TrEMBL record:
One of its GO terms (cellular component) is cytoplasm. It comes from Psychromarinibacter sediminicola. Gene3D superfamilies: Mur ligase, C-terminal domain, Mur-like, catalytic domain, MurE/MurF, N-terminal domain. Residues 333-454 form the Mur ligase C-terminal domain. Pathway: Cell wall biogenesis; peptidoglycan biosynthesis. The gene is murF. This is UDP-N-acetylmuramoyl-tripeptide--D-alanyl-D-alanine ligase. GO terms for biological process: cell division; cell wall organization; peptidoglycan biosynthetic process; regulation of cell shape. The keyword Transport does not apply. The lineage of its organism: Bacteria, Pseudomonadati, Pseudomonadota, Alphaproteobacteria, Rhodobacterales. NCBIfam families: murF. Residues 106-294 form the Mur ligase central domain.
Protein backbone atom coordinates (compact mmCIF):
# COMPACT_ATOMS: atom_id res chain seq x y z
CA UNK A 1 0.00 0.00 0.00
CA UNK A 2 1.33 3.44 -0.91
CA UNK A 3 1.78 5.77 2.05
CA UNK A 4 3.46 8.68 0.24
CA UNK A 5 3.93 9.44 -3.44
CA UNK A 6 6.80 11.64 -4.51
CA UNK A 7 4.38 14.43 -5.41
CA UNK A 8 2.49 14.25 -2.10
CA UNK A 9 5.68 14.17 -0.02
CA UNK A 10 7.20 17.05 -1.97
CA UNK A 11 4.03 19.09 -1.51
CA UNK A 12 3.95 18.34 2.22
CA UNK A 13 7.61 19.14 2.88
CA UNK A 14 8.18 21.92 0.37
CA UNK A 15 10.99 19.82 -1.09
CA UNK A 16 11.95 18.68 -4.57
CA UNK A 17 11.62 15.08 -5.71
CA UNK A 18 14.35 14.03 -8.16
CA UNK A 19 12.15 11.32 -9.66
CA UNK A 20 8.74 9.72 -9.38
CA UNK A 21 8.52 7.17 -6.57
CA UNK A 22 6.03 5.75 -4.07
CA UNK A 23 6.85 4.82 -0.48
CA UNK A 24 4.98 2.29 1.65
CA UNK A 25 6.60 3.35 4.94
CA UNK A 26 8.96 5.82 6.60
CA UNK A 27 12.23 4.88 8.32
CA UNK A 28 15.06 6.65 10.12
CA UNK A 29 17.22 3.55 10.72
CA UNK A 30 18.77 1.36 8.04
CA UNK A 31 18.88 -1.55 10.51
CA UNK A 32 15.09 -1.79 10.58
CA UNK A 33 14.35 -0.31 7.16
CA UNK A 34 11.96 -2.27 4.97
CA UNK A 35 11.97 -2.29 1.15
CA UNK A 36 9.72 0.51 -0.06
CA UNK A 37 10.38 2.82 2.92
CA UNK A 38 11.20 6.50 2.59
CA UNK A 39 14.50 6.85 4.46
CA UNK A 40 14.79 10.07 6.48
CA UNK A 41 18.42 11.17 6.88
CA UNK A 42 18.21 12.68 10.37
CA UNK A 43 21.31 13.92 12.13
CA UNK A 44 21.76 12.69 15.68
CA UNK A 45 24.86 10.94 17.00
CA UNK A 46 25.75 10.48 13.32
CA UNK A 47 24.66 12.17 10.12
CA UNK A 48 21.93 10.17 8.44
CA UNK A 49 23.25 11.25 5.04
CA UNK A 50 26.13 8.79 5.62
CA UNK A 51 23.59 5.93 5.42
CA UNK A 52 21.60 6.96 2.36
CA UNK A 53 23.54 4.76 -0.05
CA UNK A 54 23.01 1.77 2.26
CA UNK A 55 19.30 2.56 2.59
CA UNK A 56 18.84 2.68 -1.17
CA UNK A 57 20.80 -0.54 -1.58
CA UNK A 58 18.42 -2.19 0.88
CA UNK A 59 15.42 -1.19 -1.20
CA UNK A 60 14.37 2.21 0.13
CA UNK A 61 11.92 3.88 -2.23
CA UNK A 62 13.69 7.22 -1.75
CA UNK A 63 15.61 9.27 0.79
CA UNK A 64 14.66 12.56 2.44
CA UNK A 65 17.88 14.62 2.42
CA UNK A 66 19.17 18.19 2.59
CA UNK A 67 21.92 17.48 0.05
CA UNK A 68 22.96 14.76 -2.39
CA UNK A 69 25.20 12.47 -0.30
CA UNK A 70 28.56 11.21 -1.48
CA UNK A 71 28.43 7.84 -3.19
CA UNK A 72 24.82 8.29 -4.32
CA UNK A 73 24.05 8.25 -8.03
CA UNK A 74 22.86 11.43 -9.73
CA UNK A 75 19.60 9.74 -10.72
CA UNK A 76 18.90 8.28 -7.24
CA UNK A 77 15.33 8.78 -5.92
CA UNK A 78 15.65 11.65 -3.43
CA UNK A 79 13.43 14.25 -1.80
CA UNK A 80 15.68 17.27 -1.28
CA UNK A 81 14.69 19.79 1.41
CA UNK A 82 16.36 22.68 3.21
CA UNK A 83 16.56 20.89 6.60
CA UNK A 84 15.61 17.29 7.31
CA UNK A 85 14.00 17.48 10.77
CA UNK A 86 11.68 20.42 9.97
CA UNK A 87 10.74 18.60 6.76
CA UNK A 88 9.88 15.48 8.76
CA UNK A 89 7.72 17.66 11.02
CA UNK A 90 5.89 19.02 7.98
CA UNK A 91 5.44 15.48 6.64
CA UNK A 92 3.99 14.47 10.01
CA UNK A 93 1.66 17.46 10.02
CA UNK A 94 0.44 16.50 6.54
CA UNK A 95 -0.07 12.91 7.68
CA UNK A 96 -2.16 14.17 10.59
CA UNK A 97 -4.15 16.57 8.39
CA UNK A 98 -5.22 13.97 5.84
CA UNK A 99 -6.38 11.28 8.27
CA UNK A 100 -9.91 10.66 9.48
CA UNK A 101 -8.57 9.06 12.68
CA UNK A 102 -9.66 10.03 16.17
CA UNK A 103 -6.37 10.88 17.86
CA UNK A 104 -5.39 10.20 21.46
CA UNK A 105 -2.36 11.88 23.02
CA UNK A 106 -0.71 10.20 26.02
CA UNK A 107 1.83 11.59 28.46
CA UNK A 108 2.82 11.07 32.10
CA UNK A 109 5.83 10.53 34.34
CA UNK A 110 5.08 6.82 34.65
CA UNK A 111 3.20 4.33 32.51
CA UNK A 112 2.72 6.26 29.28
CA UNK A 113 4.20 3.56 27.03
CA UNK A 114 2.28 0.67 28.62
CA UNK A 115 -0.88 2.81 28.58
CA UNK A 116 -0.28 3.57 24.91
CA UNK A 117 -0.11 -0.17 24.29
CA UNK A 118 -3.28 -0.78 26.30
CA UNK A 119 -4.99 1.86 24.17
CA UNK A 120 -3.70 0.15 21.03
CA UNK A 121 -5.27 -3.10 22.24
CA UNK A 122 -8.57 -1.59 23.42
CA UNK A 123 -9.14 0.62 20.37
CA UNK A 124 -8.02 -2.23 18.12
CA UNK A 125 -11.28 -3.96 18.99
CA UNK A 126 -13.15 -0.97 17.54
CA UNK A 127 -11.25 -0.26 14.33
CA UNK A 128 -7.86 0.19 12.69
CA UNK A 129 -5.34 1.68 15.12
CA UNK A 130 -2.06 3.44 14.35
CA UNK A 131 0.53 3.80 17.11
CA UNK A 132 4.31 3.84 17.34
CA UNK A 133 5.94 0.43 17.57
CA UNK A 134 8.33 1.67 20.25
CA UNK A 135 8.55 4.57 22.68
CA UNK A 136 8.81 7.15 19.90
CA UNK A 137 7.69 10.15 21.94
CA UNK A 138 10.24 12.93 21.37
CA UNK A 139 10.93 15.74 18.87
CA UNK A 140 11.56 13.26 16.03
CA UNK A 141 9.48 10.32 17.30
CA UNK A 142 6.14 12.15 17.24
CA UNK A 143 6.46 13.52 13.67
CA UNK A 144 7.78 10.14 12.53
CA UNK A 145 4.74 8.40 14.02
CA UNK A 146 2.41 10.89 12.33
CA UNK A 147 4.23 10.58 9.00
CA UNK A 148 3.74 6.81 9.17
CA UNK A 149 -0.01 7.07 9.80
CA UNK A 150 -2.25 5.55 7.09
CA UNK A 151 -4.88 7.97 5.86
CA UNK A 152 -7.64 5.44 6.53
CA UNK A 153 -6.78 4.73 10.20
CA UNK A 154 -9.76 4.89 12.55
CA UNK A 155 -7.72 5.72 15.65
CA UNK A 156 -4.21 6.96 16.40
CA UNK A 157 -2.39 6.84 19.72
CA UNK A 158 0.48 9.31 20.02
CA UNK A 159 2.83 9.08 23.00
CA UNK A 160 4.37 12.42 23.97
CA UNK A 161 7.33 12.63 26.33
CA UNK A 162 9.76 15.23 27.58
CA UNK A 163 13.09 15.74 29.30
CA UNK A 164 13.10 19.55 29.50
CA UNK A 165 10.60 22.42 29.72
CA UNK A 166 8.85 23.46 26.55
CA UNK A 167 8.96 20.12 24.73
CA UNK A 168 5.37 18.85 25.05
CA UNK A 169 3.33 21.80 23.70
CA UNK A 170 4.76 21.84 20.14
CA UNK A 171 4.43 18.07 19.86
CA UNK A 172 0.81 18.21 21.03
CA UNK A 173 0.06 20.98 18.55
CA UNK A 174 1.53 18.74 15.86
CA UNK A 175 -0.53 15.69 16.93
CA UNK A 176 -3.77 17.65 17.56
CA UNK A 177 -5.39 15.02 19.81
CA UNK A 178 -9.13 14.72 20.33
CA UNK A 179 -8.46 13.18 23.76
CA UNK A 180 -5.39 13.85 25.92
CA UNK A 181 -4.50 11.45 28.74
CA UNK A 182 -2.06 12.14 31.60
CA UNK A 183 -1.26 8.93 33.50
CA UNK A 184 0.44 10.57 36.49
CA UNK A 185 2.95 13.20 37.57
CA UNK A 186 5.90 12.05 39.66
CA UNK A 187 9.51 13.03 40.48
CA UNK A 188 11.24 12.38 37.15
CA UNK A 189 13.62 14.57 35.13
CA UNK A 190 14.10 16.77 38.21
CA UNK A 191 17.50 17.74 36.85
CA UNK A 192 15.60 19.99 34.43
CA UNK A 193 12.71 21.07 36.68
CA UNK A 194 12.73 22.79 40.06
CA UNK A 195 9.69 20.95 41.45
CA UNK A 196 7.07 18.30 40.78
CA UNK A 197 4.59 21.16 40.24
CA UNK A 198 6.78 22.37 37.36
CA UNK A 199 6.69 18.87 35.88
CA UNK A 200 2.89 18.93 36.16
CA UNK A 201 2.71 22.22 34.29
CA UNK A 202 4.85 20.77 31.51
CA UNK A 203 2.70 17.62 31.31
CA UNK A 204 -0.41 19.82 31.19
CA UNK A 205 0.97 21.44 28.04
CA UNK A 206 -0.45 18.42 26.18
CA UNK A 207 -3.77 20.28 26.33
CA UNK A 208 -2.32 23.06 24.15
CA UNK A 209 -2.89 20.92 21.07
CA UNK A 210 -6.38 19.61 21.91
CA UNK A 211 -8.88 19.85 19.12
CA UNK A 212 -11.98 22.01 19.82
CA UNK A 213 -14.38 20.04 22.01
CA UNK A 214 -11.54 17.82 23.19
CA UNK A 215 -11.49 15.74 26.36
CA UNK A 216 -8.80 15.71 29.07
CA UNK A 217 -8.47 12.44 31.01
CA UNK A 218 -6.26 13.09 34.05
CA UNK A 219 -5.16 11.28 37.19
CA UNK A 220 -7.26 12.75 40.00
CA UNK A 221 -5.43 11.00 42.85
CA UNK A 222 -2.13 12.89 42.66
CA UNK A 223 -1.31 16.09 44.59
CA UNK A 224 -0.77 18.04 41.37
CA UNK A 225 -4.18 17.12 39.92
CA UNK A 226 -5.51 20.70 40.38
CA UNK A 227 -2.73 21.99 38.11
CA UNK A 228 -3.76 19.53 35.39
CA UNK A 229 -7.48 20.21 35.79
CA UNK A 230 -7.05 23.99 35.71
CA UNK A 231 -4.86 23.78 32.61
CA UNK A 232 -7.40 21.60 30.82
CA UNK A 233 -10.28 23.90 31.69
CA UNK A 234 -8.27 26.89 30.48
CA UNK A 235 -8.27 25.19 27.06
CA UNK A 236 -12.04 24.59 27.33
CA UNK A 237 -11.59 20.83 27.51
CA UNK A 238 -14.09 18.50 29.12
CA UNK A 239 -12.26 17.11 32.17
CA UNK A 240 -12.58 13.47 33.23
CA UNK A 241 -10.54 12.48 36.28
CA UNK A 242 -9.69 8.85 37.10
CA UNK A 243 -8.22 7.03 40.07
CA UNK A 244 -9.16 5.34 43.32
CA UNK A 245 -10.49 8.32 45.29
CA UNK A 246 -14.27 8.75 45.57
CA UNK A 247 -14.15 12.22 44.01
CA UNK A 248 -12.98 10.93 40.61
CA UNK A 249 -15.20 10.89 37.54
CA UNK A 250 -13.98 7.35 36.75
CA UNK A 251 -13.16 5.33 39.86
CA UNK A 252 -11.35 2.07 40.60
CA UNK A 253 -13.23 0.46 43.48
CA UNK A 254 -11.58 -2.93 43.97
CA UNK A 255 -8.35 -4.54 42.74
CA UNK A 256 -7.42 -8.20 43.02
CA UNK A 257 -3.88 -9.27 42.12
CA UNK A 258 -2.85 -12.82 41.28
CA UNK A 259 0.40 -14.23 39.98
CA UNK A 260 -0.59 -13.59 36.38
CA UNK A 261 -3.46 -11.11 36.27
CA UNK A 262 -5.01 -7.98 37.71
CA UNK A 263 -8.80 -8.03 38.02
CA UNK A 264 -10.54 -4.79 38.93
CA UNK A 265 -14.01 -3.43 39.47
CA UNK A 266 -14.89 0.19 39.05
CA UNK A 267 -17.29 2.80 37.82
CA UNK A 268 -16.88 4.36 34.42
CA UNK A 269 -18.86 7.42 35.38
CA UNK A 270 -22.14 5.67 36.34
CA UNK A 271 -21.44 2.43 34.50
CA UNK A 272 -20.19 -0.50 36.59
CA UNK A 273 -17.29 -2.31 34.93
CA UNK A 274 -15.22 -5.40 35.66
CA UNK A 275 -12.01 -5.73 33.69
CA UNK A 276 -8.62 -7.41 33.77
CA UNK A 277 -5.13 -7.32 32.30
CA UNK A 278 -2.68 -10.21 32.04
CA UNK A 279 -0.12 -8.92 34.52
CA UNK A 280 -0.24 -8.07 38.22
CA UNK A 281 -0.10 -4.45 39.38
CA UNK A 282 -2.49 -1.97 40.99
CA UNK A 283 -1.14 0.76 38.71
CA UNK A 284 -2.16 -1.32 35.68
CA UNK A 285 -5.72 -1.41 37.04
CA UNK A 286 -5.76 2.38 37.41
CA UNK A 287 -4.30 3.05 33.97
CA UNK A 288 -6.60 0.47 32.37
CA UNK A 289 -9.57 2.39 33.78
CA UNK A 290 -8.11 5.55 32.20
CA UNK A 291 -7.98 3.66 28.88
CA UNK A 292 -11.64 2.77 29.24
CA UNK A 293 -12.29 6.43 30.04
CA UNK A 294 -10.68 7.35 26.72
CA UNK A 295 -12.83 4.77 24.91
CA UNK A 296 -15.92 6.28 26.51
CA UNK A 297 -14.80 9.80 25.55
CA UNK A 298 -14.51 8.56 21.95
CA UNK A 299 -17.99 7.04 22.22
CA UNK A 300 -16.58 3.57 21.60
CA UNK A 301 -17.93 0.19 22.70
CA UNK A 302 -16.62 -0.27 26.25
CA UNK A 303 -17.50 -3.98 26.36
CA UNK A 304 -15.37 -4.72 23.29
CA UNK A 305 -12.52 -2.67 24.75
CA UNK A 306 -12.69 -4.62 28.03
CA UNK A 307 -12.43 -7.89 26.12
CA UNK A 308 -9.34 -6.66 24.27
CA UNK A 309 -7.72 -5.38 27.47
CA UNK A 310 -8.09 -8.86 28.94
CA UNK A 311 -5.67 -10.14 26.31
CA UNK A 312 -3.05 -7.41 26.81
CA UNK A 313 0.26 -7.96 28.62
CA UNK A 314 3.32 -5.70 28.93
CA UNK A 315 6.36 -5.92 26.69
CA UNK A 316 9.86 -6.96 27.72
CA UNK A 317 11.51 -4.47 30.05
CA UNK A 318 8.22 -2.95 31.16
CA UNK A 319 6.99 -5.35 33.82
CA UNK A 320 6.74 -8.50 31.71
CA UNK A 321 6.60 -11.61 33.90
CA UNK A 322 8.04 -14.90 32.69
CA UNK A 323 8.91 -18.31 34.08
CA UNK A 324 12.40 -19.59 33.34
CA UNK A 325 13.26 -23.24 33.88
CA UNK A 326 16.70 -23.95 35.32
CA UNK A 327 16.43 -27.71 34.68
CA UNK A 328 15.57 -29.22 31.30
CA UNK A 329 14.21 -32.35 32.99
CA UNK A 330 12.33 -30.95 35.98
CA UNK A 331 10.04 -27.99 35.10
CA UNK A 332 9.41 -27.16 38.77
CA UNK A 333 13.03 -26.03 39.04
CA UNK A 334 12.16 -22.60 37.74
CA UNK A 335 12.41 -18.94 38.69
CA UNK A 336 9.86 -16.20 38.07
CA UNK A 337 11.42 -13.13 36.44
CA UNK A 338 9.83 -9.68 36.45
CA UNK A 339 11.63 -7.70 33.74
CA UNK A 340 11.12 -3.99 34.39
CA UNK A 341 14.56 -2.83 33.30
CA UNK A 342 13.62 -0.12 30.80
CA UNK A 343 12.97 2.89 33.04
CA UNK A 344 12.70 3.95 36.68
CA UNK A 345 11.73 6.82 38.93
CA UNK A 346 10.41 6.79 42.51
CA UNK A 347 6.78 6.22 41.48
CA UNK A 348 7.47 3.40 39.04
CA UNK A 349 9.92 1.82 41.50
CA UNK A 350 7.19 1.77 44.15
CA UNK A 351 4.74 0.20 41.67
CA UNK A 352 7.22 -2.51 40.65
CA UNK A 353 8.02 -3.38 44.27
CA UNK A 354 4.29 -3.63 44.99
CA UNK A 355 4.03 -6.24 42.21
CA UNK A 356 6.98 -8.15 43.66
CA UNK A 357 5.41 -8.07 47.13
CA UNK A 358 2.13 -9.44 45.76
CA UNK A 359 3.81 -12.34 43.91
CA UNK A 360 4.13 -15.58 45.88
CA UNK A 361 7.39 -17.52 45.66
CA UNK A 362 7.29 -21.31 45.68
CA UNK A 363 8.74 -23.27 48.57
CA UNK A 364 10.54 -26.60 48.74
CA UNK A 365 11.76 -26.75 45.14
CA UNK A 366 15.29 -25.34 45.28
CA UNK A 367 18.47 -25.66 47.26
CA UNK A 368 17.00 -23.15 49.70
CA UNK A 369 13.78 -24.66 51.00
CA UNK A 370 11.97 -21.33 51.25
CA UNK A 371 11.33 -19.36 48.08
CA UNK A 372 12.30 -15.70 48.22
CA UNK A 373 11.34 -12.34 46.75
CA UNK A 374 14.52 -10.76 45.38
CA UNK A 375 14.99 -7.30 43.87
CA UNK A 376 17.85 -6.12 41.66
CA UNK A 377 17.50 -2.33 41.60
CA UNK A 378 19.53 0.00 39.39
CA UNK A 379 20.04 3.74 39.59
CA UNK A 380 17.13 6.09 38.98
CA UNK A 381 18.54 8.80 36.73
CA UNK A 382 17.77 12.49 36.15
CA UNK A 383 16.43 13.12 39.67
CA UNK A 384 18.52 16.21 40.36
CA UNK A 385 19.90 17.44 43.67
CA UNK A 386 17.56 15.30 45.79
CA UNK A 387 18.55 12.00 44.18
CA UNK A 388 20.31 10.59 47.26
CA UNK A 389 17.26 11.06 49.49
CA UNK A 390 14.92 9.68 46.81
CA UNK A 391 17.03 6.52 46.50
CA UNK A 392 17.33 5.92 50.23
CA UNK A 393 13.58 6.51 50.70
CA UNK A 394 12.83 3.32 48.77
CA UNK A 395 13.83 1.41 51.91
CA UNK A 396 10.77 2.88 53.67
CA UNK A 397 8.20 1.71 51.13
CA UNK A 398 5.59 -0.63 52.71
CA UNK A 399 6.18 -3.27 50.02
CA UNK A 400 9.84 -3.52 51.06
CA UNK A 401 8.70 -5.46 54.10
CA UNK A 402 7.87 -8.41 51.85
CA UNK A 403 11.18 -8.39 49.95
CA UNK A 404 13.82 -10.82 51.22
CA UNK A 405 16.96 -9.60 49.43
CA UNK A 406 17.77 -6.35 47.61
CA UNK A 407 20.82 -6.10 45.32
CA UNK A 408 21.76 -2.54 44.34
CA UNK A 409 23.44 -1.42 41.12
CA UNK A 410 25.07 1.94 40.52
CA UNK A 411 26.53 4.83 42.51
CA UNK A 412 23.15 6.35 43.34
CA UNK A 413 21.75 3.06 44.61
CA UNK A 414 24.46 2.95 47.26
CA UNK A 415 22.18 5.25 49.29
CA UNK A 416 19.47 2.58 49.28
CA UNK A 417 21.95 -0.16 50.10
CA UNK A 418 23.08 1.74 53.19
CA UNK A 419 19.47 2.47 54.23
CA UNK A 420 18.36 -1.18 54.07
CA UNK A 421 18.23 -3.29 57.21
CA UNK A 422 21.15 -5.72 57.27
CA UNK A 423 18.97 -8.82 56.85
CA UNK A 424 17.67 -7.53 53.47
CA UNK A 425 20.94 -6.09 52.23
CA UNK A 426 22.32 -8.00 49.24
CA UNK A 427 25.22 -6.91 47.08
CA UNK A 428 26.04 -3.38 46.02
CA UNK A 429 27.99 -3.08 42.77
CA UNK A 430 29.12 -0.11 40.73
CA UNK A 431 27.98 -1.53 37.37
CA UNK A 432 25.37 -3.96 36.09
CA UNK A 433 28.07 -6.02 34.38
CA UNK A 434 29.57 -6.82 37.78
CA UNK A 435 26.29 -8.35 38.90
CA UNK A 436 25.51 -10.01 35.55
CA UNK A 437 28.67 -12.13 35.83
CA UNK A 438 27.32 -13.49 39.12
CA UNK A 439 23.76 -13.99 37.91
CA UNK A 440 23.53 -17.68 38.79
CA UNK A 441 24.25 -16.96 42.44
CA UNK A 442 21.50 -14.36 42.74
CA UNK A 443 18.56 -16.77 42.88
CA UNK A 444 17.34 -20.30 43.41
CA UNK A 445 14.44 -22.29 42.01
CA UNK A 446 11.18 -21.07 43.49
CA UNK A 447 12.34 -17.47 43.83
CA UNK A 448 10.65 -14.42 42.31
CA UNK A 449 13.19 -11.97 40.92
CA UNK A 450 12.47 -8.32 40.01
CA UNK A 451 14.99 -6.36 37.91
CA UNK A 452 14.24 -2.64 37.80
CA UNK A 453 16.23 0.48 36.93
CA UNK A 454 16.63 3.38 34.54
CA UNK A 455 17.76 2.38 31.07
CA UNK A 456 21.10 4.07 31.64
CA UNK A 457 21.81 1.83 34.63
CA UNK A 458 22.00 -1.08 32.15
CA UNK A 459 20.35 -3.57 34.54
CA UNK A 460 18.85 -5.13 31.41
CA UNK A 461 22.21 -6.90 31.17
CA UNK A 462 21.34 -8.72 34.39
CA UNK A 463 18.05 -9.76 32.79
CA UNK A 464 19.91 -11.05 29.73
CA UNK A 465 22.31 -13.03 31.93
CA UNK A 466 19.44 -14.63 33.84
CA UNK A 467 17.64 -15.57 30.63
CA UNK A 468 20.77 -17.25 29.29
CA UNK A 469 20.88 -19.49 32.36
CA UNK A 470 17.48 -21.01 31.64
CA UNK A 471 14.81 -21.31 29.02
CA UNK A 472 11.23 -20.04 28.88
CA UNK A 473 8.69 -22.32 30.48
CA UNK A 474 5.24 -22.56 28.88
CA UNK A 475 2.81 -21.28 31.48
CA UNK A 476 -0.94 -21.06 31.67
CA UNK A 477 -0.55 -17.35 30.91
CA UNK A 478 1.34 -17.98 27.68
CA UNK A 479 -1.08 -20.70 26.70
CA UNK A 480 -3.90 -18.15 26.57
CA UNK A 481 -2.23 -16.13 23.82
Amino acid sequence: MTLWTAADAARATGGRATSDWAASGVSIDTRSLQPGDLFVALTDARDGHDFVADALAKGAAAALVSRVPEGVADDAPLLIVDEVLPALERLGAAGRARTRARVVGVTGSVGKTSTKEMLRAALGALGAVHAAEKSFNNHWGVPLTLARMPADADFAVIEIGMNHPGEIAPLSRLARPHVALITTVAPAHLEAFDSVAAIAREKAAIFDGLEPGGVAVVNGDIPTAPILVDAARAKRAAVRTFGEARRNFHRVMEVRLSRETTVAQGRLWRQKVTYKVRTPGRHFAVNALAVLGVVKALKGDVALAIGALGRWEPAEGRGKIEMLSMDAVEPSMSVELIDDAFNANPASMAAALEILAATEPRHGVGRISRGRRIAVLGDMLELGAGETALHSAIAELPSMGAVDVVHCVGPRMRALHEALPEERRGQWVETADALATEARGLFDAGDVLLVKGSKGSKVSRVVDAIRKLGHPLLTELEGLS
